[in-house]
Write a structure and sequence with these properties.
The protein contains eleven helices and twelve strands. It is 42% helix and 21% strand.
């Protein structure tokens, strides 16, 4: 517990940029096989340094297996067993069909609970009559990208939510604000990417037939969606390059530290036994080594901040770090309850704690 307290205090003192500034972003997605294949938008994971999926209150590392930038589709793979959704192909969809999506819009504001939004298919083509897309009235917010577009009548996936028509994309002369003009990539254009992964198509669940109660459909889909969490430290590199004041430079540098803290929690949350604890310990040591390389510059910049800047940043830090602190406390408590797992993790965590102290956080 003393180590956990040290880490918490060090994190609060050291890290004070917002999630958006730190290169942490999110989207939605859904499982398509029981062995962990997962669909989201390509633009959600494009150029990400690492990807994870939050599912059933666990952060699970994910690998990007295949991407299709043209159709904005990405296939991820997670270890484990999961509920999954059937993907339709060549289904006859008409304007006016009732559809819905479940995703995680603006999770940094609205929270991590899945949100259900309903609407209809407005047109069977997208912007500028793009035949690959549906136009839908289902409300799409930042963070919904990658979620399933599902027939309300039976629960079959017919698309992947991808974008909205905003004021800046409607036209240069039209100043009216588009209302509920959103788009989803048709599931027909997902299938070709799936066929490039050997054996995947054979694992896809069969389509539902006939109408089903809405309560059952909504409940099933909600169980199959996940919050995609991505880490993009390259964004911080660009911020650092144009930063001018010590305050700006500190935000850019400490953003990298925030990304490392997210990686630490992801590594710990993946621990279920001795084998996964060994993997996590190796990862924690790697993260600690990277933190130590940043320590000299972090200390130098901290010394240049005014006392008022330090106070302001510390307050912002406490707010930004609350979710990570909660996850850290929970996962550390679970790990310490297993003596064998604790024996593996403790040396790595102690070494990680020293890397924070090297940054000047006592």
């Amino acid at each position: 517990m003393r180590l956990l307290l040290t880490l918490t205090l060090a994190i609060n003192y050291s890290l004070f940029a917002s999630e958006a500034e730190l290169g942490v972003n999110s989207g939605s997605g859904f499982f398509i096989t029981t062995d962990g294949y997962f669909v989201t938008n390509n633009h959600v994971v494009d150029e990400a340094d690492s990807v994870a999926v939050k599912f059933e209150n666990k952060i699970i590392p994910a690998s990007v297996i295949k991407t299709d930038a043209n159709n904005d589709i990405a296939i991820l793979k997670l270890e484990g067993t999961y509920p999954c959704l059937p993907i339709g192909e060549g289904l006859e969809i008409r304007p006016g069909e009732d559809v819905f999506t479940i995703g995680f819009p603006k999770s940094y504001v609205m929270g991590d609970a899945p949100k259900t939004t309903l609407g209809t298919v407005s047109a069977i083509t997208g912007k500028e009559d793009d035949p690959r897309m549906f136009q839908i009235s289902v409300q799409i917010q930042p963070g919904n990208s990658g979620g399933p577009l599902v027939l309300k009548s039976n629960g079959n996936v017919i698309g992947v939510t991808s974008s909205s028509l905003g004021l800046t994309t409607s036209s240069e002369t039209d100043t009216t604000t588009p209302q509920n003009v959103n788009y989803a990539m048709k599931s027909t254009y997902i299938r070709p990417l799936l066929t490039t992964i050997p054996g995947l198509v054979e694992k896809l669940p069969a389509l539902h037939t006939g109408d089903r109660p809405w309560k059952d459909v909504q409940k099933e889909v909600e169980k199959c969606v996940g919050l995609v969490v991505i880490y993009q430290p390259d964004r911080n590199d660009k911020t650092e390059a144009v930063a001018e004041t010590p305050l700006d430079q500190s935000k850019a540098l400490l953003g990298k530290l925030m990304v490392n803290m997210e990686k630490l929690v992801v590594a710990l949350e993946a621990v279920t036994d001795k084998a996964t604890a060994e993997t996590a310990a190796t990862k924690i040591k790697e993260i600690g080594a990277e933190m130590r390389t940043l320590a000299p510059q972090a200390k130098e910049l901290k010394d240049k901040l005014t006392e008022e800047e330090k106070k302001t940043m510390k307050t912002a830090s406490e707010e930004a770090m609350k979710p990570i602190q909660e996850r850290m406390e929970k996962v550390m408590g679970k790990a310490m309850a297993d003596s064998e797992v604790a024996a593996i993790l403790m040396p790595a965590m102690m070494e990680f704690g020293k890397s924070l102290q090297a940054d000047g956080a006592e």
